[in-house]
Design a protein that fits this description.
Oligomer: single chain
Number of helices: 35
Structural class: mainly alpha
Mean pLDDT: 82
Low-confidence stretches: 1-20, 557-563, 579-590
Strand content: under 5%
Length: 824
C-alpha cells in the first residue's frame, strides 16, 4: 500500500523543513525489534541526545559574548561623543579583540558537534516527493541500502580526514591569522569536526536497525546475512584509502584512484549532477548524499588529496563564517517570541480595532504575519500560529474559506523574504554579496507583496461584501462616540514618536545636550502617555504635535521650494486629523470622548515586539550592527520580553534552545555539505561547460532569465528552499553572471537576482499539491476542506506572480534602498 499523506497533527511547527520529526523518546525502541539491536540503538540514541542537550546550552555564552560586545562598543561611542571618554576608558568599554572570533567559533561548534543529535531527532531533510508514495517496506529497504552504501563510508572518510585536519592544527599550534586581530589557536574549535563526524557515524547504526525493523523480519534476515561481507569490505576499503600498505591490494587501489579518468572532467561533473538528482529524489537525506558524491566523484575526477583538502577547508570556512553565525540566533529569537504568545495578543487587538471594516480579520492576519515575518523566517510556525488565532474566528464570522486560507498561507510565507530572512542569510555567501545589502533590497519587495495581499483581499471584499463581513455587534469592542478621533490621535502620537526617534537617530538633537536624542524621545513619549491617560493634556499635546509636523513639512522643503513626498503625506495627515479630531473640543465631546480599553491591549501587543524588531532590523539596515550582532540582541530582547510577559520558564527556554539547535543543524550542515559538493563540481569545470552551452543557444538575456526563474519555480514544488539555494543556484550562477540586463553591474545583478529567487521560492510555497503550508493549516483548522485551502493558495500564487513580474521589469524596486542607504 502506498504511503499516506503527511499527518497534520504530526507535523513539527518549529520549521517547515522538519516534516515528521521522530516521535519516540530518545532510547525508546520498539519491543519487537531484533533483541541484539535494541540496546545498541538505545545507548547510541541517548549518547547523542545528551550531547545535543549540552551543545544547545552553548547558545547562552554565544548570546552573552555578542550582546556584551555590542553594548560595550556602542556605550563607548556614546560616551566619547558626549565628552566622557575617560569614563568609558575607566569602565573598560569599547570594542574587544576576542568577541568576534569567540562568537563565530562557538557558532561553528554548535552545529558541527550537534549533527549527530540532528540525525537522532530526524531533522536532516530529505526530498520525499517520491519517497512518501512508496510502501513502508520499500522505504525501509531504500533507507537501509543508502545508509550502508552512502552514509557509513562517507562518514568514516569524513571523520578520519577531519581528525587528521584537527591533529595537524593541534600539532603545529595553528592560529587564526588572516581575518583575526586576536589570532586564537584553532584546534579547540576544529575538534568539533571529528567529534561531530563520529557522533554522526555511530548514529547511523540505529538508523539502519530502524530500517531493518520497518522492512519486516524476512527481508531483515537477508540484510543481516550480508552484514559480515559488508563489514569486511568496509574495513578493507578504509584501510586501502588511508593505509594502503597494510592490506592486500591497497597499493593497487591507490593507483587506480590516482589514475587519469577515461572521461573528461566536465563530463564526470554531469554524471555527478545526474547521480545527485537521482539519489536525492529517492528520498535519502540530502546532506549525506552530497558528502558521499563529493568524495566519489572528486576522487574519480581529480584525486584523493585534493578532495579531502576541499572537504576540510570548506567545512572549516562554513564553521567560521560570520554572516552564517546569525542563523541560530535569529531562529532562537523567533521561537522565543512564538512561545511567549506575543502575536496572539497583537492579533486580538488589531482585530478589535478593525472590527467595523469589511475584511477586518484579513487585515489583522496580514499585519500580524508581516510583523512575525520580521521576527522569524519560520513558515511552518507562522501558518500554524495564524491558523490557530484566526481560523475559528473567520469561520464563526462567516468569512469565505478559500480567501481566508489563502490569506493565512500567503501571509505565512512572508518570512522567507522579509528580513531577517534565514534564506537571505544563507544566500549571501552563495551569491558573494553582503547579507546587509540583501536585507535592504528585500525591504521594499516585502512591503509590496504584503500590500498586494492586502489590496487583493480588501478589493475582493469591496466587490463582494459576503467574503469578509463586518463583525457582529457582540464581537465588536466598546469605543467612544468619536472613534475616528481616537484612531487619528493614536496615529498622530505614534507618528510623532517615530519621527522624533528618527531625528534623534540622525543626530538632530545631539548638539543641544549630551544624549539629546534619547532625552527628546523620552520627553515626547512621556507627553504622549500623559495625553493618553489624561484627556485634558490633549489640548496641549495635539497642537504641539500638529505644529511639529507642520514644521517638518516645511523643513523638508527643497532649495527650489518643492516639497518631498513625505512632506506632502504629513500635510495630508494633519488635515485629516483636524477633520476627525475637531469634535473632541466641543462640550458634547468632553462628556462622550475617551480612549477605549482596546488601545491598552493594542499597545501591549504591538509595542514590545515592534520595538524589538525595529531595533534589530534598524541596526542592520542602518549599518550600526552586523546581522549576527543584531540577531544576538534580538534573541536577548525576546528573552527579556518573555520574562516581562510572565511566560518565561527554564524548561520552556531549554525547549526553545533545543528547537533552535535542530533547525540550525538542519540548515548549517546542509550548507557545509553543499559547499563541499559545489567546490568539487566547480573544480571539474562542469558549470563553465553548461554556461557555454546555454549561452550558445543565442537566446535573449531576458528569455534566459525567465528560463532560470521557471526552473527554480518548478524545483520549488518537490524541494525545500535550502537545497535549491545551496545546490541549484550555484550551478546557475555562471549563466546569470553572463547576462547583461538593465545595464546592471555584476554586484547589483547578484543582489537583484537573490531577491528574485527569494520571491520565486515564496511563490512556489503556494503551489499545490506539495507545499506543506496546506497541511499545517489543515492540521489546526480541520473543518476546512483541503481542496478549498488549495484553491485559496493558488489565488495568492497569482498575486505573488504579479509581484515577481514587477520586480523583474523594475529592478530599481529592489536596488533603490541599498543604494540610498549605502550613499550610492
Amino acid at each position: 500500500m502506498a504511503a499516506e499523506e503527511p499527518i497534520p497533527e504530526n507535523l513539527e511547527i518549529a520549521d517547515e523543513l522538519i516534516a515528521e520529526r521522530r516521535a519516540e523518546a530518545p532510547g525508546e525502541t520498539p519491543e519487537d525489534m531484533t533483541p541484539w539491536q535494541r540496546p545498541i540503538t538505545a545507548v547510541i540514541d541517548v549518547i547523542n541526545y545528551r550531547a545535543g542537550q549540552i551543545i544547545a546550552l552553548m547558545m547562552i555564552p554565544l548570546i552573552a559574548i555578542v550582546v556584551w560586545e555590542v553594548i560595550s562598543r556602542n556605550l563607548d561611542s556614546i560616551l566619547v561623543d558626549a565628552g566622557f571618554g575617560d569614563l568609558a576608558k575607566s569602565l573598560g568599554l569599547g570594542p574587544t579583540l576576542q568577541a568576534y572570533d569567540l562568537s563565530r567559533m562557538i557558532a561553528g561548534v554548535l552545529w558541527m558537534a550537534g549533527a549527530g543529535y540532528g540525525l537522532m531527532r530526524g531533522v536532516h531533510i530529505r526530498a520525499d516527493f517520491l519517497y512518501r508514495n512508496w510502501s513502508d517496506k520499500t522505504q525501509a529497504t531504500m533507507d537501509a541500502v543508502a545508509y550502508l552504501l552512502f552514509f557509513i563510508p562517507s562518514m568514516i572518510f569524513f571523520t578520519v580526514v577531519a581528525s587528521q585536519f584537527w591533529w595537524l592544527s593541534y600539532e603545529t599550534g595553528e592560529r587564526m591569522a588572516l581575518d583575526s586581530a586576536w589570532q586564537p589557536i584553532l584546534w579547540p574549535a576544529r575538534i568539533a569536526m571529528p567529534i561531530g563526524g563520529f557522533l554522526l557515524l555511530i548514529q547511523g547504526l540505529p538508523e539502519i536497525f530502524r530500517a531493518f525493523h520497518k522492512m519486516g523480519k524476512e527481508r531483515e534476515r537477508k540484510f543481516v546475512m550480508f552484514l559480515p561481507i559488508y563489514l569486511i569490505g568496509l574495513v578493507w576499503l578504509t584501510l586501502a584509502i588511508f593505509a594502503p600498505d597494510v592490506v592486500p591490494g591497497g597499493e593497487w587501489f591507490t593507483g587506480v584512484m590516482s589514475a587519469s579518468p577515461g572521461l573528461s572532467k566536465p563530463t564526470i561533473g554531469l554524471i555527478m549532477l545526474g547521480a545527485m538528482l537521482f539519489v536525492i529524489f529517492i528520498g535519502f537525506p540530502i546532506s549525506f548524499t552530497l558528502i558521499f558524491l563529493g568524495f566519489v566523484f572528486g576522487i574519480w575526477g581529480a584525486n584523493f588529496k585534493l578532495t579531502t583538502l576541499l572537504m576540510t577547508l570548506n567545512t572549516n570556512s562554513t564553521m567560521l563564517n560570520d554572516q552564517l553565525m546569525a542563523v541560530p540566533l535569529f531562529v532562537l529569537m523567533g521561537i522565543v517570541m512564538e512561545s511567549a504568545g506575543l502575536m496572539e495578543r497583537l492579533f486580538s487587538s488589531i482585530q478589535m480595532i478593525m472590527s467595523r471594516v469589511r475584511g477586518a480579520l484579513f487585515i489583522a492576519v496580514l499585519i500580524v504575519s508581516t510583523i512575525f515575518a520580521a521576527a522569524t523566517g519560520i513558515v511552518g510556525a507562522s501558518v500554524t500560529m495564524l491558523g490557530i488565532m484566526a481560523g475559528a474566528t473567520m469561520s464563526r464570522a462567516g468569512y469565505d474559506v478559500k480567501l481566508a486560507a489563502g490569506t493565512i498561507t500567503a501571509g505565512g510565507t512572508l518570512g522567507i523574504l522579509i528580513p531577517p530572512s534565514i534564506m537571505l542569510i544563507v544566500m549571501g555567501p552563495v551569491l558573494e554579496v553582503s547579507t546587509l545589502d540583501l536585507f535592504r533590497a528585500a525591504f521594499v519587495p516585502g512591503a509590496i507583496l504584503a500590500s498586494l495581499y492586502l489590496l487583493y483581499t480588501l478589493g475582493r471584499c469591496w466587490i463582494n461584501p459576503d467574503l469578509g463581513p463586518i463583525l457582529s455587534e457582540e464581537d465588536q469592542p466598546e469605543t467612544s462616540n468619536f472613534y475616528g478621533a481616537e484612531v487619528a490621535l493614536i496615529c498622530l502620537g505614534i507618528l510623532t514618536i517615530c519621527r522624533v526617534f528618527g531625528l534623534g537617530l540622525g543626530g538632530a538633537f545631539g548638539g543641544v545636550v549630551p544624549f539629546g536624542g534619547l532625552l527628546m524621545l523620552l520627553i515626547v513619549m512621556a507627553v504622549a502617555y500623559q495625553a493618553y491617560r489624561k484627556l485634558a493634556i490633549l489640548r496641549i499635546a495635539v497642537p504641539l504635535a500638529v505644529l511639529f509636523h507642520l514644521y517638518m513639512v516645511f523643513g523638508n522643503m527643497g532649495e527650489d521650494g518643492s516639497l518631498s513626498i513625505m512632506s506632502i503625506a504629513m500635510a495630508a495627515f494633519v488635515v485629516l486629523l483636524a477633520i476627525l479630531g475637531r469634535p473632541i473640543y466641543s462640550k458634547d465631546a468632553e462628556e462622550g470622548f475617551y480612549f477605549a480599553p482596546l488601545w491598552d491591549e493594542f499597545f501591549a501587543g504591538l509595542m514590545p515586539p515592534t520595538i524589538l524588531i525595529s531595533f534589530a532590523l534598524g541596526s542592520i539596515l542602518l549599518g550600526f550592527a552586523t546581522p549576527a550582532e543584531a540577531a544576538a540582541m534580538g534573541a536577548f530582547g525576546a528573552i527579556l520580553l518573555s520574562i516581562g510577559y510572565g511566560k518565561f520558564t527554564f524548561s520552556s527556554f531549554f525547549d526553545s534552545l533545543i528547537k533552535a539547535l535542530e533547525i540550525t543543524v538542519l540548515i548549517m550542515f546542509l550548507v557545509a555539505a553543499s559547499n563541499f559538493f559545489g567546490a568539487e563540481f566547480s573544480a571539474l569545470g562542469t558549470p563553465q561547460l553548461m554556461t557555454k552551452l546555454l549561452l550558445g543557444m543565442e537566446l535573449s538575456p531576458y528569455i534566459m532569465l525567465l528560463l532560470v526563474m521557471a526552473l527554480i519555480f518548478l524545483l520549488g514544488w518537490p524541494l525545500e528552499w535550502v537545497p535549491i539555494v545551496l545546490i541549484v543556484v550555484p550551478i546557475l550562477l555562471p549563466v546569470v553572471h553572463a547576462l547583461d540586463l538593465h545595464g546592471l553591474n555584476r554586484y547589483d545583478m547578484m543582489v537583484w537576482f537573490g531577491i528574485l529567487v527569494a520571491v520565486n521560492l515564496q511563490t512556489a510555497w503556494l503551489s499545490p499539491p506539495v507545499a506543506l503550508s496546506a497541511y499545517f493549516l489543515k492540521g489546526v483548522v480541520p473543518n476546512w476542506d483541503l481542496k478549498d485551502i488549495y484553491i485559496g493558495m493558488m489565488q495568492f500564487m497569482l498575486v505573488q506572480l504579479t509581484g515577481l513580474i514587477l520586480l523583474l521589469v523594475f529592478p530599481q524596486l529592489v536596488l533603490w534602498l541599498p543604494r540610498v542607504m549605502s550613499g550610492g
